[in-house]
Amino acid sequence: MNALEKRSVAALASVYAIRMLGLFMVMPVFMLLGGELKSATPALLGFAIGAYGLSQALLQIPFGLLSDRVGRKRMIYIGLILFAAGSVLAGSTDSIYVVIAGRILQGAGAVASVLMALLSDLTREEERTKAMATVGISIGLSFSVSLVLGPLLGAVWGLSGIFYATAVLAIVALLIVSRVVPTPHQYKTSADTHPVKAMLGRVLSDKRLLRLDFGIFALHLVLTSLFLVFPTMLRDQLGLPGSSHWWFYLTVMLTSFFAMVPFIIIGEKKRKMKPVLCGAIALLTLATAGLSGISGSLPVAWVVLFFFFMAFNLLEASLPSLISKEAPAASKGTAMGVYSTSQFMGAFLGGAFGGFLLQRVGVEGVVWLMVTVLGLWLLAALTMAAPGHTSGFVVQLRDMVGDQYDEVDGSLRRLPGVQDVVIIENAATAYLKVDREYFDEALLADFPFVRQGSSS
């Protein structure tokens, strides 16, 4: 990357991480501290935990599409202001209903797709994969940090303090966007990072993608449901004070992260992704079922949560890669938009329905919800064809008239390893889906319609 790209990626990754940190910090402590809110019930507390996911899910793709018309930075400013306003609203009240309204307002700042679109504007195609990987790492780190920071801040400042700290983080993110993130000279509607309305039908009708979308839906439903029951189990059944939860989560997250790395390598390098995926779902299901058997033993609880997050981290890291591989050519941005919408809808229903079951049935009801959803996901994964080993490849084309694009399409499809081609004429760009084991990009140099030095 050049200096401008490094600055852009670092700044946008930090904005993404700061925003997710603010959303996640409240999760490990909300059930511990939220009981003091007026009119609080387990059902309403669960709804409040997941409420941000509803507005995130509804507004994720519209925000991205709207940024084409009014500008990326303007939409990011609007989203971060909504996020800060929701945080202040939730922190300034002792009513569960106002906290719910604040959480919905937090989620209304659905700028994830806009941040990815801005990332596309500020990076070259050949550096895009590295840029997206950097953002992905920042999200994973922010989640891990939130599980440690949430209990620490909650012990000192209480629930309101966490929400106010989140508002401050939103202001910091605003300053980074304003002062550090460059303003692009033009918008690039990259199909790799940006939703495209024309591709939505194709993505929604792809059964392989839908199975992966259900996977991220199930994963985040289970994650949100976990935090409805586990923090109170730690405190009430295992005798660990809320102020000490941070070290429990810290040791679990560190060890589970390193434990899952070898399986990522096996899945990707050895092309064993389906066995790894199904094994991780099965492990997550068993660990979730094990939540019912941890009463009275802190070491057992640690082991159960270790295996839970080992499987969770493995799946969280693998699913975006699988979406990228399975998405039709020129549909990666749209596929990721639907994927993100599914993720946030899972978080919402995990909180809302999980809270309802917690109030009506108790902890066992929530655990059985989690196990049932994971069982359905395991069935879907087992019956899915083995994921392909393709990746996206972008070729910049020389200007030409419409009839010539048919010849270009045919020439590219005949190359070894090319499985799909979509040409965006107004952008003079060809999006290829290729198996890199058989694809040789050096062959592109023989084609006069390829703009030299512009493939990635």
What is the residue-averaged pLDDT?
88
- Largest sheet features: 4 strands, antiparallel
Question: How many separate domains make up the residues?
Answer: 3
* Percentage of β-strand residues: 5-15%
Number of strands: 4
Per CATH, the class of the largest domain reads Mainly Alpha
* Through-space gap between termini: 13 Å
Radius of gyration: 23 Å
The general outline is globular
CATH topology of the largest domain: Growth Hormone, Chain: A
Structural class: alpha+beta
Q: Approximately how much helix is present in the residues?
A: 55-70%
Report on this model:
The protein is of the alpha+beta class. It has 3 domains: 1-195, Growth Hormone, Chain: A, CATH 1.20.1250.20; 199-388, MFS general substrate transporter like domains (Growth Hormone, Chain: A); 390-455, Alpha-Beta Plaits (2-Layer Sandwich). Helices cover 70% and strands 6% of the residues. Strands 2-3-1-4 form a 4-stranded antiparallel beta sheet.
Short descriptors:
single chain, 456 residues, alpha+beta, Alpha-Beta Plaits, 3 domains, 4-stranded antiparallel beta sheet, 15 helices
List the helices and strands and how they pair.
Elements: H1 3-24, H2 30-33, H3 42-70, H4 72-91, H5 96-108, H6 112-122, H7 128-179, H8 200-204, H9 207-237, H10 245-269, H11 273-289, H12 298-326, H13 332-360, H14 363-382, E1 390-397, H15 404-413, E2 418-424, E3 429-435, E4 450-455
Antiparallel strand pairs: 1-3, 1-4, 2-3
Helix pairs in contact: 1-6, 1-7, 3-4, 3-5, 3-6, 3-13, 4-5, 4-6, 4-7, 7-10, 9-12, 9-13, 9-14, 10-11, 10-12, 11-12, 11-14, 13-14
